[in-house]
Write a structure and sequence with these properties.
Layout lengths: L3 E5 L3 E3 L2 E3 L14 E5 L7 E7 L4 E7 L2 E6 L4 E6 L4 E5 L4 E6 L5 E6 L8 E2 L2 H11 L1
Antiparallel strand pairs: 1-9, 2-3, 4-11, 5-10, 5-12, 6-9, 6-11, 7-8, 7-10
Bound molecules: dTDP-4-keto-6-deoxyglucose (T46).
């Protein structure tokens, strides 16, 4: 599995609107153990600033526009999420930042594990050292 990739979901669209289904181990390459969503974020605010040791996630911008930065010591990738049909898979060991570009943006996250603070690395220098030892 690539460390990150965009996944395009299907869309059932008719005159009544659109519906996008997502199933574990199908569109999502892991068992979904947790779902959370981030909202009420003022535009221009950036959250995240951490990596995960084991966690895999899919990020979906349900509404608005959110710029995701994925970086390591040698890479810096910026991905704009603005389409609820598209999910961003993020594997373990990648530093992430989420910049909310528009008011009322909503970020839905599907996660492979339950919440565990010990899986987080919240300091970039510690992340670079951890990644060097665990890649
Ligand atoms: C990630 C990005 C995309 C919980 O109690 N349970 C949870 O499942 C989560 C995700 C968070 N929390 C608590 C922990 C903090 O007291 O909610 C508070 C805010 O969490 P945090 O500052 O970690 O939020 P973000 O937006 O910086 O990061 C979140 C996820 O934590 C993280 O795993 O990859 O979204």
């Amino acid at each position: 599995m690539k460390r990150f990739k965009l996944i395009e979901f299907s869309q059932h669209k008719d005159e009544y609107g659109s519906l996008t289904p997502i199933e574990e181990n199908k569109e999502v390459p892991f068992r979904i153990r947790r779902v959370y969503y981030i909202y009420d974020v003022d535009n221009g605010i950036t959250r995240g600033y951490h990596s995960h040791k084991k966690l895999e996630q899919i990020l979906i911008c349900l509404s608005g526009e959110i710029e995701i930065t994925l970086k390591s010591r040698d890479e810096n990738n910026k991905i704009l999420l603005d389409n609820p049909k598209v999910g961003l898979y993020i594997g373990p060991n990648l530093w992430r930042e989420m910049k909310f570009i528009r008011n009322n943006s909503i970020l839905l996250v599907l996660a492979s594990e339950l919440y565990d603070e010990s899986d987080y690395i919240r300091n970039f220098d510690d992340y670079v050292i951890y990644k060097g030892d665990n890649d």
